[in-house]
Design a protein that fits this description.
- Its EC number is 4.3.1.12.
- By secondary structure, the protein is an alpha/beta fold.
- The protein contains ten helices and 16 strands.
- It has helices at about 10-15, 20-35, 110-130, 145-155, 170-185, 195, 250-255, 265-270, 285, 310-325, and strands at about 5-10, 40, 45-50, 55-65, 70-80, 90-95, 105-110, 135-140, 160-165, 190, 200-205, 225-230, 245-250, 280, 300-305, 330-335.
- It starts with a strand and ends with a strand.
- The relative contact order is 0.20.
């Protein structure tokens, strides 16, 4: 048989092809609409938890895009203390596959993709669920995905005020400085969660807790606000849903999948406070126009996204197509 080759794309390769923020948001919005229209195959995530003394775990995500004829698998580590070694907390590889032959097409560095597609899901969710005149953003957390949350949200809303905080003073100060430099506007670094979120139009919780802690309280949600929590370990007050008018998820099945300790609303799920009947919609159905998003200016809406494998595949596939056009990457012999 003729030789089979696949393309390997490093982070530097991806940086070299000029992918824009609009490209990433567009790819994610498009695949969310595909979800709403049933044009994806979306398998449950699984976890691999090594016996490493609680240092971290791996998530394995699998998905297929029917329209684009591409399948993919992502393995991503979640290691909270990696900053002590100068490493990202989340590092990933994505394998893209031809669904008609099973042939591997590419291995792609998925670290930036994981961060960027997460921020893009936050931004697309806000596009449909936040007030269109939202001008104040409060953001908790300074890890890699946090950067993309803020810059992609600001690309849609052009905030008048951005507030950020995180557990470590050095990380939040540096995060605020970098954001201010990038966005060309002041970013207020706050010392605690309450002063960061109180009265904000859009509230994002991307903390890195090791044990549940009720940092986000229901009294911080003002009429018309949108809360987007997605920390691996819950940072929400248990009865916070009492103050929420609508709950939107990325996928109800995924909300319940995996280790029962992981997920921003797992305590609410485990206590029976979040049920399928309590969920207004999945975000794909909203993006596809099958169900309404925000219906009035006073609704308090919560959007919980755990991470859709299909968004990883969509962004990786978009990057691969650009790389093929530019002949970027390293061709590896497969057989």
């Amino acid at each position: 048989m003729t030789g089979v080759w696949l393309r390997y794309l490093t982070g530097a390769d991806i940086d070299s092809i000029g992918i824009t923020r609009a490209d990433i948001v567009g790819a994610v919005e498009d695949v969310l609409a595909d979800h709403g229209n049933g044009a994806v195959v979306f398998e449950p995530r699984t976890h691999l938890v090594p016996d490493n003394g609680g240092k971290g775990h791996f998530n394995i995500l699998r998905g297929h895009l029917s329209a684009k004829r591409v399948s993919g698998v992502k393995v991503v580590g979640d290691f909270v203390a990696n900053f002590e070694r100068g490493l990202p907390s989340e590092m990933a590889l994505i394998l893209l596959l031809d669904p008609d032959t099973g042939m591997p097409r590419a291995i792609v560095d998925g670290t930036m993709i994981t961060e960027a597609r997460t921020g893009a899901v936050t931004a697309v969710g806000a596009k449909y669920l936040a007030r269109p005149d939202a001008k104040v953003l409060g953001h908790v957390g300074a890890r890699g995905t946090a950067w993309w949350n803020v810059v992609l949200l600001d690309s849609l809303f052009d905030f008048d005020e951005i507030r950020v905080t995180s557990k470590r003073p050095e990380s939040r100060e540096e995060f605020g400085r970098r954001l201010s430099e990038e966005l060309g506007k002041p970013v207020r670094v706050r010392p605690d969660v309450a002063s960061t979120l109180d009265g904000a139009d859009i509230l994002v919780e991307a903390s890195r807790l090791t044990d549940p802690e009720p940092l986000v309280r229901k009294d911080l949600l003002r009429p018309g606000s949108l809360l987007v929590p997605y920390g691996t370990i819950s940072a929400l007050e248990l009865d916070l849903l009492d103050a929420v008018d609508k709950v939107v998820v990325d996928n109800w099945r995924e909300s319940q999948s995996g280790n029962p300790r992981f997920g921003a609303l797992r305590p609410q799920l485990n206590a029976g406070l979040l049920t399928e009947e309590r969920v207004h919609a999945e975000i794909g159905s909203v993006v596809a126009g099958h169900q309404p998003g925000r219906e009035n200016d006073d609704e308090r809406i919560l959007f919980w996204h755990r991470g859709l494998s299909t968004t990883d595949v969509a962004v990786a596939d978009m990057i691969l197509r650009r790389a093929e056009e530019a002949d970027v990457g390293t061709m590896l012999p497969y057989r």
